[in-house]
Amino acid sequence: MNKSKTYTKDLYKNTKLSDELFADNIKDLYIWSEKYEKENNVKGLYKEHFKWVDSILEMKVIKLGRLQFEVLENIDDLSNVFEETKDFLFVNVHIREGEKLTPEECEKSYDMAINFYKSRGHKFSTVVFVCYSWLLSPNLKNILPEESNIIKFQEKYTFFSSNLNEKNPQIIERVFGNKSENIEDWEEGTNLQRKLKEEWKKGMRFPMTKGYFIKKI
Ligand SMILES: CC(C)(COP(=O)(O)OP(=O)(O)OC[C@H]1O[C@@H](n2cnc3c(N)ncnc32)[C@H](O)[C@@H]1OP(=O)(O)O)[C@@H](O)C(=O)NCCC(=O)NCCS
Questions:
Q1: pLDDT tens per residue, the chain (217 residues)?
Q2: CATH architecture for the domain at 60-216
Q3: What span, in angstroms and rounded, lies between the C-alpha atoms of 208 and 135?
Q4: Mutation probe of ligand 1 site: the residue of 96, 101, 172 with most atoms within 8 A of C-beta
Q5: In angstroms, what is the span from residue 97 Cα to ligand 1's centroid?
Q6: Gap from CA of 85 to ligand 1 centroid (Å)
Q7: Buried b / exposed e across 190-211, counting CB within 10 Å, b at 16+?
Q8: All structural domains of the chain with their residue ranges
């Protein structure tokens, strides 16, 4: 573990990124190991989180301010949306838990990402930010107020596609944090928890949704 930490710290140092930024990025490892420990009472990491943790250690995913970013090598289904992608940079956006998702912080973060990738020698005239998350689920508009951070976050994105075949809906895990099959056990501590539970019972669904927005430089 120490070896990886030193290796990643060197990557940050070589890119002239601050110790604060390194510390904030590396926090992700604690988040995922704490989740495992909380659920299993021993230290560990779920296999499905290995790839993600590796991306953090390799600095492929980087948290710049509120949001996390990752250059998309393969844009898959989105390639049909754009006729011409010369000088485009496609950047995946991830959202860590634990801090409010205010529009101001998100704006700062998108700008930080653009500057970061420029400084790393990427040449581009247009950035396409892509996000695939339950946070983009269109039905959230039916249960959250317009001024909520999640709805404000959604406003920038053009919805592209939703995954209608989710076996374990991520929204349930992220909002209720448990895997209880019994809906009556789902917490009702926040507005989102209350409304989501109510509408879920009536059959409304909130699939992981992919969206994008374009920023010309
Ligand atoms: C992204 C996140 C920070 C947004 O939270 P936020 O800034 O509070 O968002 P909003 O302002 O829209 O919240 C509106 C309401 O929903 C609640 N809410 C938002 N996200 C929630 C969550 N994951 N679980 C429970 N309640 C949540 C808020 O507490 C608020 O309720 P309140 O009015 O009772 O205070 C939060 O959802 C989070 O930490 N998610 C986990 C990370 C994640 O899912 N990432 C994406 C992976 S694909």
A1: 445 458 999 999 998 899 999 999 999 999 999 999 998 999 999 999 999 999 999 999 999 999 999 999 989 889 889 988 999 999 999 999 999 999 999 999 999 999 999 999 999 999 999 999 999 999 999 999 999 999 999 999 999 999 999 988 999 999 998 667 789 999 999 999 999 999 999 999 999 999 999 999 9
A2: 3-Layer(aba) Sandwich (3.40)
A3: 8
A4: 101
A5: 8
A6: 34
A7: eebeebbbeebeeeeebbbbbb
A8: 1-59, 60-216
